[in-house]
Each structure stands twice: as structure tokens, then as C-alpha cells.
Amino acid sequence: MDIEELRETFEFFDDWEDKYRFVIDLGKELEDLPQEDKVDANLIRGCQSQVWLTFHLEDDNVHLHMDSDAYIVRGLISIVLTALNHKKPAEILAFDIEALFAELELLAHLSVTRGNGLRAMIQRIHDICRAHVSGA
């Protein structure tokens, strides 16, 4: 699924419960991170649930791999990956992911702790991208 398909799918839903179920379904479809990558060094701090992030660079693109122990968070991760994965660091930094979540009407329905966890995920991804843009 690409970003436009994601937007079109969300436009189809009339209420929050339908969107919530769809996000959970996205989470169920997310590929699991290998168990050996679910280590403390890959854990994102600030998330209510456990969230792990690994990445590698290939052809100047960032390839993100993420997982969580909660389906709703896995669904949010799926949306983040749809928007940001396999792009150049500068493209990721320029993309307004919070605006996407607002457009999909998800931010208003996330608990404060889930919203903070989402921001922690984005911050970690941005930190990775800034390190590679600056050549660090």
C-alpha cells in the first residue's frame, strides 16, 4: 500500500471505530521484527508499548524495520512506514508526518501517551536521518 491508497482507504471510513479497526488490521499485517533485533538498544524510549526500530541504508535510502508488542501501535508503525520507508533522509525529514496523522483524523483519537509514543518514534527516525544528512 502506498500513501495515496492509505489516504483513500481512510476517507472511506465514516467513524473512529472503523478507522481504529483498520489500524489494528494494519498492525496484524505488519511483518514481525526478528527476535534477535528486539533488544534494549533498539527499543524506543517514551512509548507506552514496547517499540523496536532497526534500519539500514541502501542506495542512500533509509530502510526502516519496526515492531511493537501492541497491535494498535503496530498499525501506527505501518502508517509511519508507508509514509517514510525507503526514502532518502532529507525526504523523510521534510515530510510532515504529524500532518498526515491529523489528515487521517488519528491524532485527535490517540491517547496522550500513544501520541507521545508516536512522536518518540518519529523523533528517533529523524535523529537517524539527521545523522546521515550531516555525515555523522
What does this molecule look like?
- The chain is mainly α and 136 residues long.
- The protein has one domain (3-133): Sufe protein. Chain: A.
- Helices cover 54% and strands 12% of the residues.
- The chain has helices at residues 3-12, 16-29, 71-84, 89-94, 97-103, 112-133; strands at 51-58, 61-68.
- It has a two-stranded antiparallel sheet with strand order 1-2.
- A hairpin with a 2-residue loop joins strand 1 and strand 2.
- The radius of gyration is 14 Å and the shape is globular.
- The mean pLDDT is 93.
Helix content: 40-55%
Please state roughly what percent of the residues sit in beta strands, choosing from under 5%, 5-15%, 15-25%, 25-35%, 35-45% or over 45%.
5-15%
CATH structural architecture: Alpha-Beta Complex
For the CA atoms, what is the radius of gyration? 14 Å
Strand order of the largest sheet: 1-2
Average pLDDT metric:
93
For this structure, the CATH topology is Sufe protein. Chain: A
Could you state the order of secondary-structure elements as H and E? HHEEHHHH
Record field, number of beta strands: 2
Catalogue the unreliable spans.
none
